[in-house]
Amino acid sequence: MLKSCIERYSDSVWYDKDNHEAAAYEIAYHAIACTNLCSAPSEDGMVRWAGEADPDKHRFSQSEMVDYIEHVLRQIPVYLQSFSPEEDCWPDWYNLNQHEFHINSLRHVQHHAAELIERHRSTKDLSVEWLTFQ
Question: CA of 7: how far to CAs of 11, 57, 90, 98, in Å?
Fold first, then answer.
């Protein structure tokens, strides 16, 4: 859903910060970077995206963010090989086991996907395809 939303943004809305604390590209970067971080089995086990840059100095394009999503999707099967649901999660600022932490990560990315969808809908008609099962 996040990828579909990002692909539908126009440049003018994607980079617009008027009346918002953060531009859409900053929200997308935050959501994807946190997903990569939170999906990794450890800080040392996280595989960094080749396109990483300081979001305060670089305005990420939609295609860059889609590439980052694809990077994370490629890493998740590797990350899951070290998944131990009942063990504490590695970021010590969370008091959660790995299973709870992954659920929190899913909630976090969907929170920001909804934020981006709502922002775009307020400026332009945006529809996002829902996953269906046949």
Answer: 10, 22, 32, 31
Q: Do the beta carbons of residue 112 and residue 30 sit within 8 Å?
A: yes
pLDDT average per 10 residues of sequence, the chain (134 residues): 89 86 95 92 89 91 97 92 88 88 93 90 65 54
**Residue 111 located in a structural domain:** yes
Confidence at residue 133, expressed as pLDDT on a 0 to 100 scale: 55
Entry pTM: 0.88
CATH value at residue 33: 1.20.120.450
- For residue 128, tell me if it sits in a domain: no
Range of the domain at 113: 2-123
- Other C-beta atoms lying within 10 Å of the C-beta of residue 20: 12
pLDDT at 128: 61
Q: Could you tell me if residue 132 is inside a domain?
A: no
Q: How many domains does the chain have?
A: 1
Name the nearest CA neighbour of 11 among 69, 65, 72, 52: 65
- The span from the CA of 73 to the CA of 71, in Å, is 5
Residues 11 and 14: their CA atoms lie apart, in Å, by: 5
